[in-house]
Specification:
The complex is a heterodimer. Chain A contains 10 helices and no strands. The radius of gyration of chain A is 22 Å and the shape is globular. By secondary structure, chain A is mainly alpha-helical. In chain B, a hairpin with a 2-residue loop joins β3 and β4. By secondary structure, chain B is mainly alpha-helical. Helix content of chain B is about 45%, strand content about 5%. The longest helix of chain B is centred in the first third of the chain and has 26 residues. In chain B, the strands form 3 sheets. A 3-stranded mixed beta sheet of chain B has the order 6-5-7. In chain B, strands 1-2 form a two-stranded antiparallel ribbon. In chain B, strands 3-4 form a two-stranded antiparallel ribbon. Chain B is globular and about 50 Å long. Chain B contains 11 helices and 7 strands. Chain B has one domain: Cytochrome Bc1 Complex, Chain D, domain 2. Classes of the chains: A mainly alpha, B mainly alpha.
């Protein structure tokens, strides 16, 4: 093989360096240092709020890979997150779709100005998903769920998939953008059942456009 | 190919691209955004119709008027180009300041000057530093809006050559992708994929220079929904609140690092403040 001219080597190295990110260039950002800076930036944090800054093993794996974990890391996340899923004690996966619609509309809860005694935490589904024809103000970070149950034939298996997806989306999609509503106790099991009903009930506006 | 045919081909390409863009804009159904764009161009034609200009004026008066326990003006404040030099200073921020031994954005620097030169109590300045809806931007934010406006028309050109500046960039990038809080949110959850929105609100993607330039160059901005000027530190504070994190401190290393990362992504983009937002 012909030897590459020195200038070409330098140029290639320079191009490769340009592609590197600031964090790679610095190579100084160990997780401990970032934790200390986070702690200092939010001086009013107490109790449960402190753990919000730190994050768990799954969050760290997703942060460090910029949301694209290796196949192996993805399998580890999937296994860990699958183990968190708890099912309703009465065995019923669907609650009331009307309450589910209210939860899908509400983005209230868990912010430092919110009061859980005044108002329950919502699921805020419409922030990212289209669900019903009636609601035109919907986001597009997640896929459209219009006619979701109808398309899947209202099967029990599909309802279970929806329940699991809301409870912990990372069980099947590692580093999903969607919150782990059940695993992180953002929503209760009863609230998740109501949202499953919104998506899977034949009477729901999701399936009756 | 002769030159007239070249021109026709180029014109066809331009028309084709704009038709595609128009079709996409229509498909997204974002009529509100289009109306806002018209509003923005009208404001650009007549800058004095922008309510945020009132705070630029107020900020200028605050900058020049002696205040604080030491009763001095901020004209002794060095924004990076020498004491009292305001024109073009914002375009070169954030940067490392040896006197404070840290990287500062415009608001952190003004905070520093208000404390060190004018003798204000820093803790008082950083307690409830941002206005509630319907209330005007606080003095510090008004001054920052004035200072930023004095770089209008200039491109973002912060150097980021000092080691501490490189560190701030690296931290900012790390934080941009760092998940935290009960919802697993990172900045990248909403700002890493093009053409997405929350409800009807379009989301800028800061990894794309053209989108970063267009967005970052408008801050501080007048926000129609809350009827006040919102500063960059306030914008970051609001994002972190929505991410269900605790209250971030104005001028913290974390907020300065995030602003450094955004400004670097917007490098070369034109500054045009106060912008106008929903």
């Amino acid at each position: 093989m012909k030897k590459m001219p020195a200038i070409a080597v330098v140029l290639l190295a320079a191009i490769a360096a340009c592609g590197k990110t600031y964090a790679q260039q610095m190579n100084v950002l160990d997780e401990g240092a970032v934790d200390v800076l986070m702690r200092a930036a939010f001086p009013k944090s107490r109790g449960e709020w402190l753990s919000r800054l730190k994050g768990d093993e799954t969050m760290r794996a997703c942060s460090n890979s910029k949301g694209a974990p290796s196949a192996e890391a993805g399998r580890a996340i999937g296994a860990r997150e699958r183990a968190t899923i708890r099912y309703p004690s009465d065995g019923k996966l669907m609650g009331d779709w009307r309450r589910g619609e209210q939860l899908a509309q509400s983005g209230y809860g868990l912010r430092f100005t919110d009061d859980p005694a005044t108002r329950a935490t919502g699921g805020n589904c419409y922030a990212c998903h289209q669900l019903t024809k009636q609601e035109v103000s919907f986001g597009t970070l997640g896929p459209s769920l219009l006619e979701y149950g109808k398309i899947r034939g209202f099967s029990e298996a599909a309802a279970k998939t929806v329940y699991e997806k809301i409870y912990n989306p990372q069980a099947t999609a590692p580093c999903s953008l969607m919150p782990r509503f059940g695993a992180n106790v953002v929503l209760t099991i009863e609230q998740i059942k109501d949202i499953v009903a919104l998506i899977m009930s034949p009477e729901s506006p999701v399936n009756r456009p | 190919m002769n030159s007239s045919r070249k021109r026709i081909c180029a014109a066809a390409l331009v028309v084709g691209l704009s038709l595609t863009a128009a079709a996409e804009a229509q498909q997204s159904g974002d009529a509100i955004e289009r109306e806002l764009e018209t509003y923005r161009s009208m404001l650009k034609a007549d800058p004095w119709s922008n309510p945020g200009m009132l705070d630029v004026d107020r900020g200028e008066a605050l900058w020049k008027t002696p205040a604080g326990p030491k009763n001095v003006s901020l004209e002794g404040c060095d924004l990076g180009l020498g004491a009292g030099k305001v024109d073009g200073a914002f375009a070169r921020l954030p940067r490392y300041f040896a006197d404070g031994d840290r990287v500062m954005d415009v608001e952190t620097r003004i905070l520093w000057c208000m404390e060190k030169l004018q003798g204000f109590d820093r803790l008082k300045l950083i307690t409830r530093p941002h206005p509630a809806a319907g209330m005007p931007v606080r003095d510090l934010g008004g001054i920052a809006t004035f200072v930023a406006s004095r770089s209008n028309g200039q491109p973002f050109k912060a150097a980021f050559t000092e080691p501490r500046e490189r560190e701030a960039l690296a931290l900012g990038e790390t934080l941009f992708y760092r998940r935290s809080g009960p919802m697993d949110f990172a900045c990248s959850t909403c700002h890493a994929d093009s053409g997405k929105r929350i409800r009807l609100q379009a989301l800028p993607v800061f990894s794309k220079p053209e989108e970063a330039r267009n967005s970052v160059g408008q801050w501080p901005a007048y926000r129609v929904s809350t009827a006040h000027v919102m500063t960059t530190q306030h914008r970051i504070y609001d994002c972190l609140w929505q991410m269900r994190l605790p209250e971030v401190e104005l001028g913290s290393e974390v907020s300065v690092a995030l602003i450094s990362y955004l400004v670097k992504q917007a490098e070369g983009g034109e500054i045009n403040v106060p912008g106008i937002k929903r």
